[in-house]
Write a structure and sequence with these properties.
single chain; about 240 residues; alpha+beta; Elongation Factor Tu (Ef-tu), domain 3; Threonyl-tRNA Synthetase, Chain A, domain 2; six-stranded antiparallel β-sheet; four-stranded antiparallel β-sheet; about 20% helix; globular; binds zinc ion; metal-binding; ATP binding; alanine-tRNA ligase activity; zinc; metal ion binding
């Protein structure tokens, strides 16, 4: 049931053809997909699967598939509620076109890339991260005061700097030898595939990440710090929203 994760090579793919490899209580498994499964703090994708006869199945979410021997790339497409009649028509081997809710995903990509920039704005370990369609929430392990205006100004500078964003790959062994690359305490690098994907924002940030990102920081657009609070004695929570 291995899924080829096309979004890891090109996050801008909005649709792909695929074959159904399994249908179970988790949802619909495909041989390849453009849908990103919830992980690394980033929400799962939504969209539609279109059958050869034109029938649309609404997909509400995408999760990592759970089965013996599953890899981090194995995804399962979770159908929206009340589609039992449509789902009953599906068979293993059927060809479908998987189409993303691109507007939603592109917001994830912009906010996710912004969360990488935040690691450069605030040089503290990240102790939690959540990227949704409306906001990016980051918890920084620090007792230092954080100035909202300074954060917004520095972030705007990095966004406006039009820095290129690209992925690189290193082996699991190389990753183990470079623990300093890991910035997020709560998210382990996606290991187990023999290689680890690094996200490089030219001149700003380099860290392991399996998520989806924009190609240039300028695409992020204007953001504001919507919330800044003390989450615990040693953690500061920051929420970014589109301005
Ligand atoms: Zn990332």
């Amino acid at each position: 049931m291995t899924t080829r994760a096309l979004f890891r090579e090109d996050a801008y793919l909005t649709h792909c053809d695929a074959a159904i490899t399994a249908i179970d209580e988790q949802g619909i498994h495909l041989d390849q997909t453009v849908f990103y499964p919830l992980g690394g703090g980033q929400a799962g994708d939504a969209g539609t699967l279109t059958l050869a006869d034109g029938t649309h199945i609404a997909i509400a979410d995408t999760r990592k598939a759970k089965f013996e021997g599953a890899t981090p790339d194995d995804a399962v497409h979770v159908p929206a509620a009340d589609q039992d009649e449509l789902l009953a028509r599906l068979s293993v081997g059927d060809r479908v076109t998987a189409t993303l809710d691109w507007a939603r995903r592109y917001r994830h990509m912009r906010l996710h890339t912004a969360s990488h920039l935040m690691c450069a704005v605030l040089p503290y370990p990240v102790d939690g991260c959540s990227i949704t369609i409306d906001y990016a929430r980051l918890d920084f392990a620090t007792v230092e005061p954080i100035e909202r205006e300074l954060v917004e100004a520095r972030l705007a500078e990095l966004v406006g700097g039009a820095h290129s964003v690209a992925t690189e790959w290193i082996t699991d062994e190389e990753m183990q030898q470079r623990p300093e690359l890991v910035r997020t305490m709560s998210v382990k690098p996606p290991m187990g595939l023999g290689r680890v994907r690094l996200l490089r924002i030219e001149g700003i940030d380099l860290q392991p990440c399996g998520g989806t990102h924009v190609r240039n920081t300028q695409e992020i657009g204007a953001l504001r710090v919507a919330k800044l609070e003390k989450k615990s004695a040693r953690t500061r929570r920051l929420v970014l929203e589109f301005a």
